[in-house]
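Please go through the sequence and fold tokens given here and tell me how the chain folds. Record follows.
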Amino acid sequence: MKHAAAAQGNTPAEPRGAAQASHCGHVELPSAPVMKPATPLTPAVGLRRRTCCVALLAAGVPGRAVRAADDTQPVIEMLPVPGATLEVQFEPGFDAAQRGRLLDWVRLEAAAVAGWFGRFPVPAAELLLLPVAGEGVRSGVSFGEPSPWLRVTVGRDTSAAQLRDDWVLAHEMVHLAVPQLPRAQRWLHEGIATYVESLARGAAGLVTPARVWGQWSRAMAQGQPAAGDQGLDRTPTWGRTYWGGALFCLLADVRLRQRGTLQRGLQQALQGVLAGGGDYRVAWPATRVLATADATLGQTTLMELYRQMNEPAAPPIELDALWRQLGVDGDTLRDDAPLAALRRAILG
């Protein structure tokens, strides 16, 4: 995770049975790491607000977009989304048609994230879009300093369908809904982003429930403790950070609904964190995030699970039994399973 100005990033996806792709332009969830810088780019390296403002003043078009006929100048768009305004910054290299497709994509993903949390996580954020040759969404990373901003690299030949089918931007937007955490607890940040990106997109109709549950049933095992595991806070491997964190979220969601009501789970708990001022603009320890989430539902489930999964040599989760109870059989969902109604309450 991060102190002060360090970054949160996504990981690339790998379709089942395929060799690792060089980009992350798939809805399937993370299955291999990509290295991210430890600190954000300075304004001299990326577009960022100062460069954009200079361009806006030079163009004489305050508050709207800068467009150059030869597409060699930065372009900025102020994009209203539910509960927020995003400053979408295009580095030179995207033509007008490409910018239009990208704005539609940003609007769609922001609406999905806002729909899941009840509003967009922060009232204002910047999104820097960087063009590269080829197609696909290549990478994304989120920063909390000096104010919330995201950087996403996109191939210039990426189609509208490829953008709609991609999870990277939703993943980075979800990071904005979680306070900055100590480095040892980065698993909670990445776990929430990995888990919620799919739920938000699924609830918005951008991906089917069967696809989400099927992918989870294949990927969650990567978050299980291996030999020598020292608990989530002390085992900063890729698998435990991303999928261990996502597994924590899934178990928490199931237990919260079992102990309370089917309709109140991790979604409502994290909405409580956001309502309590816990977003990417502040720094909290994981215990405060989890205790605030628990208090929203009048439970202690998250703190109990944290203590359990943070123990050295904690036993692995019986995932096969959990999938059977939830009615997840690969990409087939069974509605006669004992916890089928709970599964549908999470996403169905």
In short: Strands lie at 7-9, 75-81, 84-90, 124-132, 137-143, 149-155, 328-329, 332-333.
